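User: Some background: our group keeps a shared notebook of sequences we're curious about, and every so often someone picks one and asks for a predicted structure to add to the entry. Today it's my turn. The entry only has the sequence so far, pasted here. Could you supply the structure so I can complete it?
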Amino acid sequence: MNQPSNEFGQPVGVPLPGWSAPPFPSNEAIEGRYCRLEPLDHVRHAADLHAANRLDDGRNWTYLSGVPCKTLDEYREWMAATCLGKDPMFFAIVERASGKPVGIASYMRITPAAGAIEVGHIHYSERMKRSPIATEAMYLMMRKAFDLGYRRYEWKCDSLNAPSRAAALRLGFSFEGIFRQALVYKGRNRDTAWYSIIDGEWPELRKAFEAWLDPANFDAQGKQRMRFEGIESSMKSEPMNQADPHRIVDAAVLERLYGTPSPASIRKEVDYLHPHYRAFVDASPFTILATSGPGGLDASPRGDAPGFVAVQDEKTLLIPDRRGNNRIDSLRNIISDSRVALLFLVPGVGETLRINGSAHISIDPDLLGRFAVDGKAPRSVLVVKIETVYFQCSRAILRSNIWDPSRHIDRKELPSTGEILSAVSQSEIDGEKYDREWPERVKTTLY
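Assistant: Of course. Here's the predicted structure to add to the notebook entry:
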């Protein structure tokens, strides 16, 4: 699209002929397959919501403006004071199977004149986390907003709230930046991360939601067959070449091709670092860190003495970020998308260990000092919160014979790093000098 300009040649925004402000959303029930969103009623919904919230130890309130309510009366009073207005407009998320409310969410900062509306005050009880209800509730609220004619659907959260930021990205929101020192709440600063979906993105995203929420996407135990991110990314990819009958674009076709996973391949996955899995982390001198962000995907090697990845507890890993080339691709990604994946290798061992979760970057002096080597501390430490852990069987390692010394090749059989740099830079970098200085440089810059 060509950039419009005015009579002075200045660039101006795209014209919106015929656009008019959408109506204010009505506070009425929204029906879904797995849940129903009902206008929040502090009399009718409070008892069940309070009971569901008591399954949480209080951490769900860390990034909310309120505090945990110890008694039902306190919770009902909080709802009466906070949740009964038109903006924010609160909904109870009611589980269809039980008929009981299991969470709340609201429209807020509703601005029809700009065609903008935000979703917020999201509080899921433990009963609805990682369930179709959690995703469907967000889909239903998005659908209503865009059906009304809103152009922009917003998600904002504390920039330190890694689960919320990961959820926004999973649901198809685009990261827009950090508003520094945007709020003061609970006596502390809040930098706010902004995310949005716009109306031009909604049609394809809607298809992805509906495909994921289809009952065919869940097995008899209710486990998803395909992740929402996978469905969404496939719909964002280039259109299928209709002349290519061999390209698979349907998850059901893919599953028929590969068959049902074995029980062991499912049961090996846990959401914490079991002592047996910890043994792999402690023995591993090498891991690959995978990240994603606005600039694309990245897979980066991390290596040091065995056990260099420290286990803080069964849900937390600490990874020192040693000296490198300062590209910081992985770290930039983590700033905008906290999701990470790790692959641990142990020399001589066929099985590998896979860990998925979220991460943030810390420069806590105590953490940095903990990982100092010869008095040199890392510049930062990655704090990884574990979500899933499982081993990968040894087939790939056995097929590759990677640990067999007789299969190792002489480094001289491949181009040197200097030769590569000289070639790709069209001789702007002196490759011979780079190769000549590298052995001494690496000695002084290893840590």
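Suggested note for the entry: The longest helix spans residues 132-148. DSSP finds 14 helices and 15 strands in the chain.
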